[in-house]
Design brief:
546 residues; alpha+beta; 2 domains; 5-stranded antiparallel β-sheet; 20 strands; 30% helix; globular
Length: 546
């Protein structure tokens, strides 16, 4: 048997995926905060010796696609690969050095075998709180990144195996939840060691040369598969626009995301020229974040079976003018970059729907419903309860959209209410699907969710970075838009509810106050009957919820 016959390459590919999954399981089993342990807001990846992605665990596309771009930026700029030595760990959370937003801390560790660099292990973890003007580091009122939390420029936290503990101490001193963040960061670093050991075992078994050749073959396979899928899309130019409600500061000013696909043979260019200029509020994307969204939308539209690695990116080019919401300039705030990121996914998929109307679904809920509660307890301690919610998936050409379904760009897991109540001073009053919140159509959109809780601590503050409150998830092929989301507040001493904006920072809460989040339903697909359209209109106007 040849050392690199297809069977051997596939065995090595699965071994590399297993190494990434071992890192993922390590974090899941050893992390402390609910955002990591329950929501699974982290990702792990394996890169070849040159820093090109080759295998990843089944976690979050928003992380995985941008981790590769971040590493490329580091190697091309402040951290050339020649300076990486055995025992080093590179860390950063700087969005303008390849990161996403400040709570997402990236770490990379080179893997050496018999004195030769054979791979790089990478882990990205969303940390519960890294400071800034709001709990969870999601300050909807921020106008520059300095207000969003603790920044870590690219640096070596470990050098030759010796740890710079001062970096960790600085991070924890700037967090409202140092115990949880410290535990999660220790878990993150431990996962890197697990990844290094797994990759060294692969090299021990198959040889460093065979491993290097296999990674090239794996990446080339993905490139070939992606070119075939692009080649199946009719050549042409396809444009679509979608909008973010606002940036949370300049209200009633929607932000346009315009995507134009240029399909030529087996190559694809995505042009985002025409998108709105960068916003004052923290909804901006850096270029790497935008690239991540574009790649995710392409894979969701045409390439779900393509192994995601550096190879599948090669036939794709992206144009995103600097100074726009899709390529913001420093020091623009970016904490809620997912508002624009999800909309990039929606816009690119909307453009693909023109080329492939029988393949692409209508818009899903299109936002990471991120909110955080800073609870103030009787003993003077504080706790940060951070959570993410999802909504309805868009109707498909062949089926209804899924209800309350998290997938796509963020791919988060559900936080069980029983676990949250056992840890934080909140009581949940409702968690349910919202009837008829999906857009009407031949195939209806999936239903959104309602989540309502009461604060049991003496006091607290609440922050939320949401969207799709005014501009609903679009329908396709004559299908209706989904029901928009909303955020409601009811003081303990009142029976009257107050509607809040989609982006909130520093809302004071007292014991007994109630907050309810209602997420958007997905858009419908295909023409709906008049009866269905009237029913959806009634439910939207009445805000009906069971």
């Amino acid at each position: 048997m040849s050392e690199l016959d297809p069977v051997r390459v596939e065995i090595i590919r699965n071994a590399l995926v297993s190494a990434a999954e071992e890192m993922s399981v390590t974090i899941w089993r050893t992390s402390r905060s609910s955002v990591v342990r329950e929501i699974l807001d982290y990702s792990t990846c394996v890169f070849d010796a040159g820093g090109h992605s080759v295998a990843q665990a089944a976690r979050m596309p928003v992380h995985l696609n941008s981790m590769a771009a971040c590493l490329e930026d580091l190697l091309a700029g402040p951290m050339p690969i020649e300076t990486w030595n055995d025992g080093d760990i590179i860390v950063t959370n700087d969005p303008y050095s390849g990161g996403q937003h400040l709570p997402d801390i990236l770490t990379f560790k080179p893997v050496f075998f018999e004195g030769r660099r054979i791979a790089i292990a990478g882990v990205l973890v969303h940390h519960l709180d890294v400071g800034g003007g709001a709990a969870g580091s999601y300050d909807a009122s921020a106008t520059e990144i300095y207000q969003e939390g603790f920044q870590i420029p690219p640096l070596k936290i470990d050098e030759g195996g010796r740890r710079n503990q001062a970096v960790i101490e600085l991070l924890l001193a700037n967090s409202r939840e140092p115990a949880n963040v410290g535990g999660d960061f220790a878990s993150q670093l431990a996962a890197l060691d697990i990844g290094v050991a797994g990759l060294q075992r692969i090299a021990q078994r198959y040889g460093a040369d065979a491993l290097a050749e296999a990674t090239k073959t794996i990446q080339n396979f993905s490139e070939t598969a992606m070119r075939q899928l692009i080649g199946a899309v009719p050549d042409g130019v396809y444009a679509f626009e979608d909008f973010v409600d606002d940036d949370g500061i300049d209200l009633d000013q929607p932000l346009k995301i315009r995507a134009v696909l240029h399909v030529t043979s087996d190559q694809l260019m995505v042009d985002l020229t025409g998108s709105s200029g960068q916003a004052r509020g923290p909804v901006n994307c850096t270029l790497n974040m935008t690239r991540s969204a574009v790649i995710c939308a392409i894979l969701m539209s045409i390439g779900s079976e393509v192994p995601a690695n550096a190879g599948c990116y090669r036939p794709i080019s992206i144009s995103a003018p600097e100074g726009t919401v899709v390529n913001a300039r420093h020091p623009a705030p970016v904490a809620n970059r997912m508002a624009v990121g999800h909309r990039i996914v929606n816009a690119v998929m909307g453009a693909f729907a023109q080329a492939l109307p029988d393949q692409v679904p209508a818009a899903y809920y299109g936002v990471s419903y991120a909110y955080a509660l800073n609870a103030e307890n009787d003993d003077g301690s504080r706790q940060v309860y951070f959570d993410l919610e999802c909504g309805g998936w868009g109707g498909h050409p062949d089926s209804d959209g899924a209800d309350g379904f998290s997938c796509g760009f963020h791919n988060i897991a559900n936080s069980p209410m029983e676990m949250i109540e056992s840890v934080y001073p909140v009581t949940f009053l409702r968690y349910s699907l919202i009837p008829d919140s999906g857009g009407a159509g031949k195939h209806r959109g999936g239903l959104g969710l309602a989540r309502e809780f009461r604060l049991d601590a003496p006091a607290g503050s609440f922050a939320a970075n949401l969207d799709r409150f005014t501009i609903a998830p679009y329908g396709l092929g004559g299908g209706a838009a989904g029901r928009p989301g909303r955020l409601m507040f009811r003081p303990a001493d009142s029976t009257e509810e107050q509607a809040l904006s989609s982006k909130v920072s520093g809302l004071r809460l007292e014991s007994g106050d109630v907050v309810r989040l209602e997420t958007a339903g997905g858009g419908g697909h295909g023409p709906a009957s008049e009866r269905d359209l009237n029913a959806s209109k009634h439910d939207l106007e009445e805000g009906y919820i069971s």
